[in-house]
Each structure stands twice: as structure tokens, then as C-alpha cells.
Amino acid sequence: MISSLSRVNKSDKVLMSVGSKDVTVISEARKVVERKVPLPVKWIKGLTSVQIFLVKTEKHFSFNRVQTLQLFQTIPSGKSKTDYFLVVRGGRPMFSPVASAGALCVGGVHRLKLLEQLIPHISELRVFADPEMQATTWQLYFGKVRFSFTLSRDAWRGFSGEGAALEDLIGDVPDQWINQLDQYSYANHAFNPTMLAIEEGIDFERLAGITARLSAMGLLGYDVDDNQFYYRQLPYKLGRIMSRNRCYYKRPGKD
Length: 255
Prior knowledge:
By secondary structure, the chain is an alpha+beta fold. The chain contains 8 helices and 13 strands.
């Protein structure tokens, strides 16, 4: 699939079909089908935790196409085993192995090479990071289309090992609230937890638990541009998330 997509030229006509069992790409020269396979457990756990990091992110840099091309030319060859730092010197962005004031730490910077073929077509790149720089988000803009790519600090760890959402998930959130959201929401519909709390008479202290649990179910994503959650639905259940994480969490004061 990746090989086929890399051969698509700007002027080619391409049809993409996304179904429940496969994804098909049809171009003038070829047809490629990628069939559905079981989703790895660590991916499910990662998709739960990534929203928790995105909520805390802030925009650090914005680059045009030329600046982004210059930046990607400084990605070191091979797999980087140490952190690199995004810095701007003389108006030119670059990756440096040396930290400096205002620099953004990026672990496993070689992973950004996955975006290289998209860069010549963008109008802008925005870079976001959480305060502790445990995750960075690289958002590409193609006119009205946005492509978001989020990296964990450590390439080997991903988002599944941090336990960022576990404490919120432990809290009791009535199933009727979740079912009600699932009934009235639709794809990409903005989700305002504060309004839900007001309309349903929910204690504001429980909002973190509600959004974390909905994210764990795959019902919420987070938009770093608009700073808000939005409704979606991913094909896994909360019970599976809880069963995989329960053994890693211990309540304070409990055995």
C-alpha cells in the first residue's frame, strides 16, 4: 500500500475506498487492497492515552513550506538513539543534538521521515508539544485539509506505558451518560464537557473522568488547533482498555 501510494503523481486520478473490512486504493495503473487485521493491544492503549497528552499541548512553532523543507533536511540519517532539539537560528529551523533556550525536545526524530513525501505539498507546518515535552504533534496544512502526526518522547515506548489516563478511568462514570453521548453525537461533532455537565447536572470535578473514559472508548478525539474534543468512534470497547491496564494501577493507600 505504501509503495503504491508513493508512486502516485500529483496529476493522477486516485479513488480511495474505506470499508469495514478493507481499504482499497485504485489509480490508473494499479489497484491495491489492504485488508483488516486485529488491532494490537499496545495500539489500543496508545490511542487511549494520546488524547490526554494532546489536551496539554501548546503551539511552539509555525513554518512555511520552504522553512519546513529546510528543517527536514537536517534530520539525521539512520535511527537516532538520543534526543534532538528543534531550534531556529537566523530564521532557519533545524534539528540540533545540543539543547538551547527555547528549543523543543524531540525523541526518535528519525520517525519524522515518514512525512517527507508530504512536505513539498503543504502550505504550513505547526509544531505542538506538552509542557513536559513527552509528546510532540506535527500538523501539516494542505489548504482546508489538516494532517496530524503525534510522536511520543521515546520511540520504543509509544503512549501505552505512561498510564496517563488510568486514574481518571478508575472513577465511576455512569453508563447512561456515555450512551446518551453516543446517541446524539455524530462524526466530528465538537464535544463540550462543560456544557454536558451543566445540562446533565454533573459535578465539574468529574469532568476529567468523563472525557478520559469517553476517549478510552474511542468516542473522543482532540483538536489541537481548536483546543476542544470532538466525537468519533473507534472499534474497541472500554472493558478491553480497563482489563489491560488494571494490573498496572494501584490506588494510593491500597494494596
